[in-house]
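User: Before I run my own analysis I want an independent prediction to cross-check against. Here's the chain; please return only the C-alpha cells and, at the end, one sentence I can use as a sanity check.
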Amino acid sequence: MPNDPSFTAPGRFWKGNIHTHSTRSDGMRDAADVCATYREAGYDFLALTDHFLAKFGFPIVDTRPFRTPGFTTILGAELHAPSTALGEIWHILAVGLPADFAQPASGESGPQLAARAIEAGAFVAIPHPGWYALSTEDANTIPGAHAVEVYNHTSQLRTERGDGVYLADQLLAQGRRINLIAVDDAHFACADAFGGWVMVKAERNEPEALLAALKAGHFYATQGPLIHHIAWGEEEVEVTCSPAAAVMVLGRGSRAVQSVGAIQTRVSLKLAALRAAGPFARIVIADEQGRRAWSNPVYF
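Assistant: C-alpha cells:
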C-alpha cells in the first residue's frame, strides 16, 4: 500500500480556506475585511474566489496587498459557464489563477473553461455538488479536476445540501482518482465562516508552495478534528488523531470498517474487506460533536 503523501511529504500543515466571496461579487464584506477576518481567526492562508461573471466585472481579486507575515493569499475565482445536465450554470472552483485569466469566450462550455483553468496552472475543484444536484456524468466531463468539495459550509447552513461525499465516492468507485476538500464558501450573510477548511502540508506558507501541495494531494479536509498521521499497511491502517468518537476506513460501495468509542486517538483498522472490493480506501474521523475530518483516498 502506498502511504498518504499528506503525512509523508516534507513540511508542516498550514490551515486555509480556498472558497470565499467578497463584495467584488455577492459577498457582504470587502476583500480587505475578508482577509483580515480569516487572518485574525488563525488561518495561515486564504483564497478569495469571487464569481467570475460579467455582472461583477469578471473579478480575480488582487489580494496580495492583504498578505502579512504569517498569512498569505492565493488568487482565484469561481468560474461559470452553461450548463449542467439539469440546465444549471456550471460552478467551477479555480485556485491559483493568473491575474489576467481571460473571461469566458462566447460558447465556451463549463468543461472547456475548467480545462483552460487547469492549463493556466490552477487547482480546480468541483464545488458544492449536492447544492445543485451535480451528477457523476457532469463530473466526468471535467476529467482534470483535482478535487470534490465533500463539505461546503454555506450550502449546509442555507440549504442543507453541503455534503458532496456521494459524488466523490461514486467517482472513486468508477476508478477516478480525485481528492477531497472542505470549504466555507463564506458570503458573510450569515454565520457561514470557519466551518470547513483544508490542512495543507508544505515546507513554506507561500502561494506557490501551497498550490503545488494542493495539486499533489498533500492535504486533508476537516471541520475541526485533526489527523496527525495515517500509516497504511498491507493488512491494516493505523490512524493517529485528535480525540474521536469514530474512526472509519471507507471503500467501494458499502464497504466500511470502523472503531467507535468515547475517546480514541490511535486506532488500527483491518483492510481485508476493502481490498477485496477495491479500488480505493479513505479515512474519516468524527468527534463527539459530529464534526468530521476526511483524508484523501489511497488506491489498491
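Sanity check: DSSP finds eight helices and 16 strands in the chain.
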